[in-house]
Design a protein that fits this description.
Elements: H1 3-9, H2 13-16, H3 19-32, H4 35-39, H5 43-61, H6 67-82, H7 88-92, E1 96-102, E2 107-111, E3 114-117, H8 125-137, E4 149-153, E5 159-163, E6 173-177, H9 185-190, H10 196-207, E7 212-216, H11 222-230, E8 239-243, E9 255-259, H12 273-280, E10 287-290, H13 297-306, E11 313-317, H14 321-332, H15 341-351, E12 354-360, E13 366-376, E14 382-392, E15 403-407, H16 412-420
Parallel strand pairs: 7-11, 7-12, 8-9, 8-10, 10-11
Antiparallel strand pairs: 1-2, 1-6, 2-3, 4-5, 5-6, 12-13, 13-14, 14-15
Helix pairs in contact: 3-5, 3-6, 5-6, 12-13, 13-15, 14-15
């Protein structure tokens, strides 16, 4: 083909990078490579080998492209052959926290707490199905009409949910939640998720072995907060973490991570969070950390907190600290052990010391909006007593959330508990004298190693 004809055929840049073009070069690549030889290479070597082959094919048979377009075409073709196609650059983008594929032509991503639609898409529904199959095959699962819903986890930690027709009416739906980066409490303070005094107080709570519940809606940063607070658990303690998808990354040496397992294709072999909580009690844990309680395991967790496993941490979906209490009551009642409602309420009042409430603002920011301790008398109602609240200013035209963290002096019994544990209290919260008659000194943000 003459150079002029090749230029005329490829005049539009959008045509150069069209989906059909990528599919064409992917097919030509499969015809050229030796799959047996490729199987003996590492992933990095495979990618380098395929990029070289695609480059030669484009040079020999393809249109004349600018350097950037040529590199982009090669990358997309190799991504289709080895990775997850158009999702590969999104997974490589650290600013993307969630990827939502609503059919082959509709892809949304979340960045900085806000959702944006992308221009990219899959060539067709078959290509989307191939990508889904490639994802679920990594965890020995399959998705078809007999099993149209799948939860999986990528090797790099991302959580994946797939639902396909006939349950979905818009085609295959793929949702990928990125593995959250581990943040320290100091980093969360710098990001405005809490103030310095609140960070010091929560660190003291963890070291003093108070039982904490981290509550909030979806995407408010509960797992991130749980991971940050877990850094203050002493190195000498044996920790068991229990999650649906292993996301926690604790820095301590003696950490045992357990992950639930869904049922297989025959509907058998499921291992639930409740099964793991019960098993954890036989593992001599000093602390139990549950990624999220959603059902009957809540009662087992409350009983563990009441029987010597102080300092445990859990998360729960709730929109306020009061809602968190009612939510725990409802979840605990889902257990197969039928207990009177008053007995469940007493279990919660005795087990839970503090609730940390998170929320996400209109600007996508995530922060602690309330820290409350529970007050409860036997056979009485549970009340929440705030010790810190975030007071928000009126939202302006820029939709940015501004405000201030308002501390409240801690009650005497909580001050006494912290004092007996050898923990100091930030001055903003030390409104009452300590049990020995002196004011509590200010606390410090520190891990156990630097104590």
């Amino acid at each position: 083909m003459a150079l002029k004809d090749r230029l005329d055929d490829d005049r539009s840049s959008s045509d150069r990078m069209s989906k059909s073009t990528v599919q064409h070069w992917r097919q030509r690549l499969l015809e050229e490579v030796n799959l047996d030889e490729l199987a003996r290479l590492t992933m990095a070597q495979r990618r380098a080998r395929l990029e070289k082959v695609v480059g030669l094919l484009v040079t020999r048979e393809g249109p004349v492209l600018a350097a950037g377009e040529r590199a982009g075409l090669i990358r997309r073709v190799v991504d289709e052959a080895l990775g997850l196609g158009v999702l590969e650059p999104l997974l490589a983008d650290p600013t993307v926290t969630e990827i939502m594929v609503n059919g082959p032509d509709s892809i949304f991503v979340e960045r900085a707490g806000r959702v944006h639609r992308l221009d990219a898409g899959f060539a067709n529904e078959d290509q989307l199905y191939q990508t889904i199959d490639r994802i679920v095959a990594q965890v020995n699962r399959r998705v078809d009409e007999s099993s149209p819903m799948v939860d999986a986890r990528l090797p790099t930690g991302e959580r994946v949910n797939v639902i396909i027709p006939p349950l979905s009416l818009v085609g295959p739906i793929l949702t990928i939640r990125r593995f959250p980066r581990s943040y320290s409490v100091e980093e969360l303070v710098s990001l405005g998720s809490m103030d310095q005094a609140t960070g010091m107080l929560l660190a003291a709570f963890v070291r003093a072995r108070l039982n904490l519940v981290i509550a909030g809606g979806t995407g408010t940063g509960k797992t991130t907060m749980l991971n940050a607070l877990s850094a203050f658990v002493p190195e000498s303690e044996r920790i068991v973490t229990i999650e649906d998808s292993a996301e926690l990354r604790l820095k301590q040496e003696h950490v045992l991570s357990l992950e639930s397992r869904p049922a297989n294709i025959e509907g058998k072999g499921a291992i639930t969070i409740r099964d793991l909580v019960r098993n954890a009690l036989r593992m001599r844990p000093d602390r139990i950390i549950v990624g999220e309680v959603r059902g009957g395991e809540t009662l087992d967790m409350l009983q563990a907190m009441n029987t010597g496993h102080d300092g445990s941490l859990v998360t729960v979906h709730a929109n306020s600290t009061e809602d968190a209490v009612y939510r725990l009551q409802t979840l605990a009642s889902m257990s197969d052990v039928r207990l009177p409602f008053e007995a469940i309420r007493d279990q919660i009042g005795s087990a839970v010391d503090v609730i940390v409430q998170l929320a996400r603002g209109p600007d996508g920011s995530r922060r602690i909006v309330e820290v409350a301790m529970l007050e409860h008398a036997r056979r009485g109602e549970i009340t929440t007593r705030p010790v810190m609240r975030f007071e928000s200013d009126p939202i302006g035209a820029d939709r940015v959330v501004r405000g201030r963290f308002r501390p409240v002096p801690l009650p005497r019994d909580l001050l006494t508990k912290l004092f007996h544990a050898g923990e100091s209290v930030p001055p903003a919260f030390a409104g009452a004298p300590s049990p020995n008659g002196t004011a509590h000194p200010g606390g410090r943000l520190r891990g156990e190693q630097s104590s």
